[in-house]
Fold each of these.
Amino acid sequence: MSAAEGPLVVGVDTSTQSTKALVVDASTGQVVASGQAAHTVSSGAGRESDPRQWWDALCEALHQCGDAAHEAAAVSIGGQQHGLVTLDDRGEPVRPALLWNDVRSAPQARRLTEEMGGAKFWAERTGSVPAASFTVTKWAWLAENEPDAVRATKAVRLPHDYLTERLTGQGTTDRGDASGTGWWASGTESYDEEILAHVGLDPAMLPRVVRPGEVAGTVRDSHDLPFSKGTLVAPGTGDNAAAALGLGLRPGTPVLSLGTSGTVYAVSKRRPADPTGTVAGFADAHGDWLPLACTLNCTLAVDRLAALLGLDREAVEPTTGLTLLPYLDGERTPNLPNASGILHGLRHDTTAGQLLQAAYDGAVHALLGALDLVLDEDADRSAPLLLIGGGARGTAWQQTVRRLSGRPVQVPEAKELVALGAAAQAAGLLTGEDPASVARRWNTARGPVLDAVERDEATLARISGVLSDAAPLLERGTEAH
């Protein structure tokens, strides 16, 4: 047996590129075991993964945890949002899942917005204006491009739903992840039958939305995972809502997450509805709201630029006249799904390090541009930005965020906040606590605070100017090769 003070719980983060599992002491928050296994994602026009990979990766990650996973009393899955998982009548994938960063459904997003009352209708009805990342647009794309796959589909799930269902045998989701589909009405907190009818999706094909704090099911015995039969399974949630739980966020505290995608969000007591589409009005995992803005190009794009230049990602040099918009995968904020990267201001004396710094500046500019829209009037706009995600420990990322935000920056020491948030949700099943309160008891947000520096208004203005002037090029996009 482990030397834990209290019962053990498992928190899982099934992300775009890997699945991570943590075994956590529910009393102290101490991580007593961990495991991780990779996924593959297709390249080319789309971004797809076989959901069965996620299950195999979960099995591998849990087996790496050893006996501690078998001792766990509860488990919860946090997962990448928006992905469209289509299952046949045997529960097997009809085709690979369309992932959040697959932007082929941009035309369907535009058409759905126009066909059903415009952006204001969608914002008021679902909290968000459909973008190419949203599940409803992916379903519309599939219906147009692969009607045989739609006919074969008997159940529609999100990535975290798929794994939870394989654990319990029951189709369930939660309000946090459901709010990113585009077919969940945020006002009534139920599936929107008018939208579902419009896109030809039977509500019976969707999972039951489990309430915060409710048990989604128990682990069944028809698999080889190292769980005891009857282990409690929490509702799980989307990755951003899980990270918010993992930080124990109180309303108004701003978060900037530097991952494959970049996100800015804060918990709010007010239901968001931004008709511009910049802010997605997501629900959080415990009864409040999680207004969020997301960029498609963050650490992956900057690392790609570093690789092209043959530089370490930290090898930046100050730049004054160079602008790089690193929209390598199209972009969601600003909403430019067909865009590619644009470089302006290149000179004979420009260095590779300056080019790399310009990539950081362009990525952070996009995130900070949405921050004021995410924060409501109750937010403390001088409070430290909580910097999380894979890039948060990078000095170049930290210094760029400080310089362009003019705010202090706090970097939590906890590394796997999505998995920790899922673990806090699992612990809440055992203790009856709100998961965010569990995370605060675990002190997960603890970490150094970097003082504010003067905001670099000149760089912000230059990037905004290039973005405005380049709008026709960015909207036109490039021909696929």
Amino acid sequence: MSKTEQTAPGATPPRTSAVVTGQDAARVAFAAFVGTALEWYDYFLFGTAAALVFNRLYFTTLDPAAATLAAFATFGVGFAARPIGALAFGWLGDRVGRRPALLITVVMIGVATGLIGVLPSYAAIGVAAPLLLVLLRLLQGIAVGGEWGGAVTLAVEHAPPEKRGRYAALPQVGSPVGTLLSSGAFALVLLLPSDTFDSWGWRLPFLAAFPLLAIAVYIRRKVEESPLFDEMLKQDERAKVPALDVFRQAWGRLLVAMASATLGVGGFYLLTTFMISYGADTLGLSRSLMVNGTLVAAVTEIAVILAMGRMAERFGPGRVTVWGGLLTALLAFPVFWLVETKNPVVVVLAMAVGIGALSVAYAVSGALLAELFPARLRYSGVALAYNLAGALTGFLPFLASALLGAFDGASWPVVLLLIGLSLLTALGGFLGERMRVRDNVVTV
């Protein structure tokens, strides 16, 4: 039996300890992983479609370059909406419970994604088409704004403190699995003739969100409430307005958490959403090759995340974050140089190496962010940090495309952007390791 005490500015330690077990932790973390994978599948579909479809079907009155920028801007709208979801579901998760918040988020994103699959194109309903596309993207963003923070919080709070690294990494695996599912779905429909793909083939991955939603709801209903939240509920130690307390009492922690999460969010979309567009539209590579590159990269990411989760338990998630930031900064130029060789094998290898490097920091982001905030503010703190970082970096594919046009197709400004993100994340990891809190938990 082990016991640790919660210590954090503005936090009142519970009078009794919450009890956690390794068996419960594994079951809850797996459920969080499955639900998160299905949610990221829904969310990532939009990114791939923005690079391949939306510019041609929903922004047809614009020239090709402007249409691509408009599609990426719509993609970024989802990130801008995520802090709204963090505020709403953070309040729900810290006041009512982690579990009900996660049930609502999965329904919201599943319905929004499925409806994109039946949305008429610009040719059918005119300007209403891109407006409705933006609305559905907003709903996706609000839902995801509450999803990831809740999944990580629930996994961490069910886990013994000395094993939080591995269990917090499981929801992170949901991201590459979601990438595999979404990219795999698009890889299959891209085998259809071009006219068929544009007509209805691209809709099939979105329509698959409806049956996947049923699976996600079934899984989420079986997840137990956090033992730490149950203890806070018994002792009435919940924050009245959690987000307000985060900004008042833990704003420094919020900034550090945002910095540490920046690479895992923004860098990922530079090397997937933007890279697909860059390879297909600027370098003239096939769309199938670029999508398949994300598939190989996702497999690499899964292996890195699982390994780094264990490393976080030994060295601390902040230190591992520093390693990931520095490694990505060192590899940024080589990754783009390799893609620009246009050799198919080298292009796929470069995408795998780049995403594998930034996954070192992403793997431990859940563990680090959760331990930067006391339990009474955790759902809100984690959700706000992650999604404010997402809001600031969600428009990076748009910015990268604009830089590409401004510098006559040269990639070096985009590479410098990636390096800047990497160094910011390394700084966040360095500071975050020194600010971690401990919970009042008994392991049996």
Amino acid sequence: MTDKVLGVILGGGQGSRLSPLTQTRSKPAVPIAGKYRLVDIPISNCLNSGIHRMFVLTQFNSASLNKHIKNTYHFSHFSTAFVDILAAEQTVQNAGWFQGTADAVRQCMHHIVSHEFDYILILSGDQLYQMDFKDMIEKHIEAKAEITIATIPVTAKDATDFGILKADEENMITSFTEKPKVGLDAWVSDTGAEMQAEGRNFLASMGIYVFNREYLINILNENEDEKDFGKEILPRAINESRVLSYQYEGYWTDIGNISSFFEANLGLTDEIPKFNMFDSNHTIFTRARMLPPSKISGTTLEKAIIAEGCIVQASRIEHAVLGIRARIGKDTVVTNAYVMGSDRYQTLEEIQSETEKGNALIGIGDRCYINNAIIDKNCRIGNDVKINGGPHLEDGDHELYAVKDGIVVVKKGAVLPSGSVI
């Protein structure tokens, strides 16, 4: 796989549906599960599948992502492995931004084709799943396909949010429709007895593609007005080429908005989570920080994930994820929440000085109540602060926080004075 396949991870656009988490960072750089970044998921899937050469394509707020990749993915000097950033750039041929997924790959093609490969694996940078790409590529080769699209069976309720496909007996895709709202019955597929028993009768595109090298080069050169794979290139290719459906039945979720991001993170606290971080065959790689173990005093923990370097004195942490260096004060209750932590510790001198001035420290203070919330990095939440998210709150974007689907998102670096109520 190392010699045959090159991975390309699409960083996505502005990520407005994940705002305010994407106000200062690109979507792939958003922290997930307390210690990882979203981009670590596709990169780790590639590394676990024997694919060691990857490009990450970005154009919005890419500084944080660049820093993470530079500090994380180091390989031997004697290896051909790499994870490189390709940011949108002005050239003589093209002076504009990426206009879509296909346009992003097209604009970066002169960098990509300088490497030897037979197949190119195109991935999204904002999905949570564990997948062995070796099997997908082997099926692609066996079927003599020119394109393979990873598909996942979904219910009728979910089908309206995805591109839906139909395939023949040989799993060759025969037709495609984007987010169908009517006439769903015509798109029912034979997804297998197990999937059908769950009501998952529709094949949805996962936004994961394998292309033959020369085929991709030709299709991008011949159709320069087509900017997007899902909406333009693939529907036409289905009528003209051999396009294989590779059905995947494991856990997969698209981190498209705040609600799905919140559910994916809190789902990790389940007794048997659908996304298994403890599978040694699917290691999730990330930056190796030299942090101390977490210290917990007088806290009742229930369904909690706590990353390294936390200092917790809360009375209760339930159904919550605490990110690196999270600090939680005494008599505080945190439920149904993702606290992302912070980038640094305050020194004892800083803590004393800030306390004397009556200023909030980095972290969450004493006697707070945090429920249905995401606390972004480096926030300073004073004492006696109450944040109670839920359907009773109207969606809105405020100076220090936003509310989306009842979830309160405290913005990165925000300061909530003691006694604040949301």
